[in-house]
């Protein structure tokens, strides 16, 4: 029986509102790619992201345009040249990995030489808001080992201090989502160091981050919007200490594996991050994150409902996916 492709558009409500420096959202609108062959089904999920010019309809159209290649059985390696990096390729690539695992009886973990994947400590995200509201959120989750705090205004000192006071024992990362002005960058980094912040993610806009190479960086600075695929890495060595690998940016697990290897060779620390999506989107990233310094795969925890079965989250840990979910 030939391989067949099914494309679904799904929406999962967010519990409350998720707010970053660029705006707020109340649902995770995702695309599910399902490949079927000889009674086996492989699944992949992507989250189109407007910051990169993606829409649900546009990403679905990209996958549809590649249907002949996909149904002809294209490999993940050949997909790298057939489709551009981004959400569309991610959904297809992850579905190929899942289908091949189910057809061949060898798990994705085994194929990428993971003898026994382990549970990982993942961040929990605190949305951007007024300092007292963010402090209340941080206090409610202060038992968690790792918090990721959304910032990105001209004056975030009060937010840093409020969250640190509310969660004195948590490791804290900040994510400015390109929102810090150059005029306050050094001040914010000094306050971050004083508050014992572990890492600051993407403080300046992508393409306008040269200042990071010219100043002292008293805390680790991580590239997110500035880095998408392996080809971006070499030009960032002078301004970033870490990179955030997201499968929706790289365009799937195949490219993400190569990107992680090259980033480690170049001396970057690794964060595995995510868009707000379901457990299906997180599952490949949990395997990729097994030796990462920072893990931020809390997307399903921000949803009012997840896929079933989903990933197992207990306390600060996320567990590797069961075969019934992916891989």
Automatic annotation (TrEMBL):
Keyword set includes Nucleotidyltransferase: no
Domain of life: Bacteria
Domain Mandelate racemase/muconate lactonizing enzyme C-terminal residue range list: 131-222
Family matches, as Gene3D superfamilies: Enolase-like C-terminal domain, Enolase-like, N-terminal domain
EC class of the enzyme, as a word: isomerase
Bilayer-crossing regions: 266-289
EC number: 5.1.1.-
A Pfam match: MR_MLE_C
Record text on cofactor binding: Binds 1 Mg(2+) ion per subunit.
Active site (catalytic residues): 150, 246
Positions with a binding annotation for Mg(2+): 175, 201, 224
The UniProt record lists the keyword Isomerase: yes
Cofactor: Mg(2+)
Alphabetically ordered keywords of this record: Isomerase, Magnesium, Membrane, Metal-binding, Transmembrane, Transmembrane helix
UniProt cross-references to InterPro entries, sorted A to Z: DgoD-like, Dipeptide_epimerase, Enolase-like_C_sf, Enolase-like_N, Enolase_C-like, Mandelate_racemase_C, Mandelate_racemase_N_dom
GO MF term list: metal ion binding; racemase and epimerase activity, acting on amino acids and derivatives
NCBIfam families: racemase_DgcA
PANTHER family per record: D-GALACTONATE DEHYDRATASE-RELATED (PTHR48080), ENOLASE SUPERFAMILY MEMBER DDB_G0284701 (PTHR48080:SF3)
Family: Belongs to the mandelate racemase/muconate lactonizing enzyme family.
Protein's UniProt name: Dipeptide epimerase
Organism of provenance: Rhizobium sullae (Rhizobium hedysari)
